[in-house]
Amino acid sequence: MIVLGVESSCDETGLALYDTGRGLLAHALHSQVAMHEEYGGVVPELASRDHIRRAIPLLQETLKRADVAPADIDAIAYTQGPGLAGALLVGSSIACSLGLALDKPVLGVHHLEGHLLSPLLASDPPEFPFVALLVSGGHTQLMRVDGVGQYELLGETLDDAAGEAFDKSAKLLGLGYPGGPAISRLAEFGDPAAYKLPRPMLHSKDLNFSFSGLKTAVLTVVKNQGAANVCEQDKANIARGFVDAIVDVLVAKCVAALKQTGLKRLVIAGGVGANSQLRAALNAAAEKKRFRVYYPELEFCTDNGAMIAFAGAMRLSINPQAARRDYAFNVRPRWPLDELKIV
Ligand code: ATP
Ligand code: MG
Ligand code: FE
Q1: Do 187 and 320 belong to one domain?
Q2: Measured from the CB, is residue 274 less than 6 Å from ligand 1?
Q3: pTM for the full model?
Q4: Domain range enclosing 95
Q5: From CA 286, how far away is CA 266, in angstroms rounded?
Q6: Cβ(93) to ligand 1 under 6 A?
Q7: Where along the chain is substrate bound (predicted)?
């Protein structure tokens, strides 16, 4: 069965073809980062318009690379939510129009389920059950995953998401948007002893997070020095202090979640999962505490069409009726993962 995946929830347009027999056939992606950079964040209206411009050429490229004809597609999966309403509507209308034109069923996919299952696309995928840390631009959650559609929320952020903390702190250091990769690169040159920033909720008894105080700590350091006086080495030192603090908290909560559930497999998903310092610290903890940690391929950490095609294909393998010839544009900009039905 060949599933076409369409992702358009935020500022990446992603198209992919996944075959349940042969695996991922091809995928194509366009990131709008350069377009939004001058505004310091995603401008929803510009995002929607750009998805419209990019989707069809990306679809043609994906079909060509996979050597698949439109008629060979068995079902179309699109990101139904959560995300920006206008951006989601573009993907949904493209998926539904294609479905109607080709007489193929369509299936709305939860964006976070796409992220959660993305490590299963790697060459050495984890088996169920596992603990998943979802660390993206909009979410920071620990989940127990027993199978496709079987997710139990163990803890989550009470305020900012980890990716948001990276982006906001990077902005305070004048590093542009999105700041995650930039602050991570700069931290490599920083002195870990220069700034000891707070580790919010590190010792709380639960599996929740809070990152807004960390961002405020970065702001306070920058303000105290006077933004104009923060030299390059200082910036690197602050970046290092920030990265060390956030990584400490993320790793400690992952270890606590494994202990609480008694599981030995940890899966990392979402954009912050691309972070090299986080990966190094998790690998070290895994060796010490004897668990295994799994990551998505680097290119599938941030938003992409492959994870949507894959999540759609997984749901369809369990329940072929999950895709329907119902072509109403139906998006859910707000959609808690625990409202997702078991297949
Ligand atoms: P959501 O999936 O919650 O709706 P999103 O789709 O915007 O949010 P992703 O695409 O998964 O989130 O990830 C983007 C986030 O990942 C951004 O905040 C970005 O700064 C962060 N990020 C990407 N690469 C890195 C990195 N190497 N280090 C730290 N953060 C990173
Ligand atoms: Mg993005
Ligand atoms: Fe995402």
Answers
A1: no
A2: yes
A3: 0.96
A4: 2-117+300-339
A5: 9
A6: no
A7: 134-138, 167, 180, 275
